[in-house]
Amino acid sequence: MTGKICIIIGTRPEIIKMSPVVRVCEQRGLDWFMIHTGQHYSYNMDRAFFEQLKLPDARYNLDVGSGSGGHGEQTGRMLAGIEEVLIKEEPGAVLVEGDTNTVLAGALAASKLGIKVGHVEAGLRSYDRRMPEEINRVVADHISDYLFAPTVRSRDILLGEGVSDEKVFVTGNTVVDAVYQNRGIANDGGETLESICGAGLDLEPNRYLLATAHRQENVDDAVRFAGILKGLELISDEFSLPVIYPTHPRSRKMMEEFSLDAVGVTFIEPLDYLSFLKLEADARLVLTDSGGVQEETCILNVPCVTLRDNTERPETAMVGANVLVGVDPGKILEGARVMLDRARDWENPFGDGRAGERIVSITIG
Ligand code: UD1
Ligand code: UDP
Questions:
Q1: Is CB count within 10 Å lower at the N or C end of the chain?
Q2: How far is the CA of 13 from the centre of ligand 2 (A)?
Q3: What is the rounded distance in angstroms from the CA atom of residue 183 to the CA atom of residue 63?
Q4: Count of domains for the chain
Q5: Same structural domain for residues 85 and 152?
Q6: What letter would DSSP give residue 302?
Q7: Is 71 marked active-site?
Q8: Is the CB of residue 40 below 6 angstroms from any atom belonging to ligand 1?
């Protein structure tokens, strides 16, 4: 590749998982710039991560936001905005990460302009097309020129779909880089469970549960969301452990709309990365429908119960770090019983923490 690199991000997990790639570009003094679509924009979903991870500002912020329309409107506005910048800047390659609408728009805009596209975290599949993320990742993979597969399994999925071998690179997942680069700082940074979650909760390491759920198919559905909260209540009651739930803005909005609550569960604002990493590392068990949290718990050797019917990260379950339980309260409780008994001795399947270096080296050729 000749020319500059354009990194496109838009949401919390993209900021976190692209941070190791940004760091390598900076360390090597490369010609690169960032476009932020503005898909996430609240301070604690966006700016907090730039400040804490010491990331340079994006050269362009498209301020697309959530909008009142649906996926089409949001993606369409990003597509138009990204296209305009790419025509002006003429980068040699565009890098996108994950499976959000930002990824779909970035990959599509670049590929139509004949600009090379690198997809970080390629080859993940839930095989559930009801998820917007599944559609985004399938399309992004098939229009990309460099597919950075985190594991051999994800590479094999791509080859099975007819993607040419020369385009696929097993790099590990940049989430490992992010965890390794930040877990020490999170531990030694002086933050305590009390300073993170507020006084009065009396949280002790290994004596609380951490929960997150924000997926559209879970929290926009009153029955499914209520099932998740009931499951958390049952576990909190059976094991006499408090549950902390840093609440994604989508989930907060839907809890209010459906008038939902849960006994034994403390709902707090979304956390910055170092605080969240500490809370994850010290938890007795984590319950989640997040992709990144399934990976991070696996890396941190903390057992995980996934509140979904499928996962595009089956490596976590294969090594024994995770079970899939869906949203039925009884099944959530049963999953917690199983994982609370599980030895925490699995190996991290997502790489050695040098994915960012590999991705940049391959991109610049
Ligand atoms: C998006 C991604 C999802 C990813 C998640 C990470 C898509 C289709 N979905 O979902 O894959 O797991 O980000 O967190 O791209 N909101 C705010 N402030 C913000 C951002 C969102 O208040 O900074 C609220 C708005 O009410 C908005 C809602 O959250 O309507 C949903 O935001 P949106 O970006 O559309 O989807 P996410 O659920 O965040
Ligand atoms: N995260 C965070 N603060 C929180 C919740 C999550 O910093 O309050 C981080 C978490 O460590 C992980 C990422 O956000 O790296 C996961 O993002 P999210 O669950 O929003 O999206 P997904 O991974 O499901 O796409």
A1: C
A2: 6
A3: 31
A4: 2
A5: yes
A6: -
A7: no
A8: yes
